[in-house]
Specification:
The chain is mainly alpha-helical and 219 residues long. The protein has helices at 2-32, 37-56, 63-82, 88-106, 114-132, 140-163, 167-192, 198-215.
Length: 219
């Protein structure tokens, strides 16, 4: 019992330390965007690495934690690729894989309330495609696939929350919503119209999403 309590205390202490470090790194990454390019190149992926470390605190001794950890690794690849505009498609592929892995982690079947979850997500998908289609160029099909993947991931996180109403599923579901928001802002800024503050919104909601999803492995 004492050993178990000591382990829980250690995990909590490390979670607090990594969260503070991640918050600091995220702030530097967001602040340095466009102003200090080299600093941004370092702290953008570093923040994700610190979030990966949070997921690693679970010990990866179950399929859920392992899937989230793998999804975060692919997210890190995506972060690195997206630093370079010429590597956008590789970033898209990396995050697509991350969403597929997250979907596997969140999968808990389909409930009778599925239609009430799916309908607003489908409406949202149609609105996003309408906004992005004209500016997507040759990336129309990849964007369609990507939107489908992230909304399926969000759908499964909602189903998991409905099936198991506990802290871990709340964190995963809200994290998935923030991830969807982050990707939507990024897409609109890139394919529809650039707007001031897009990078702040994209990165802050993205890091919050990943932090919540990573933290869900500890419950």
């Amino acid at each position: 019992m004492i050993a178990a309590n000591n382990l829980l205390f250690f995990e909590l202490r490390m979670w607090i330390i990594l969260t503070i470090l991640g918050l600091t790194s995220a702030f530097i990454a967001i602040y340095s965007y466009k102003k200090y390019t080299q600093v941004f190149f370092i702290f953008k992926p570093l923040t994700t690495i610190l979030i990966i470390a949070i997921a690693g605190l679970s010990g990866l001794d179950n399929s859920y934690s392992l899937a989230i950890f793998i999804g975060l690794i692919f997210s890190l690849f995506g972060d690195i690729f997206l630093v370079f505009k010429s590597k956008f498609i590789w970033g898209l592929i990396s995050f697509l894989i991350a969403h597929i892995v997250y979907t596997k982690a969140f999968y808990s079947g389909f409930s009778g309330l599925g239609i009430f979850i799916a309908l607003p997500l489908l409406i949202y998908a149609v609105i996003m495609l309408f906004q992005l289609w004209s500016g997507a160029g040759k990336l129309k099909i990849p964007i369609l696939i990507y939107i489908s993947a992230i909304l399926l991931m969000t759908y499964q996180s909602a189903e998991m929350f409905l099936a198991f109403k506990q802290m871990s599923t709340i964190l995963a579901f809200v994290g998935a919503l923030f991830f969807t928001f982050s990707d939507s802002v990024l897409a609109i800024n890139r394919f529809k119209k650039e707007f001031k503050g897009a990078q702040v919104l994209t990165l802050s909601s993205y890091y919050l999403a990943q932090w919540m999803i990573a933290s869900s492995t500890l419950y």
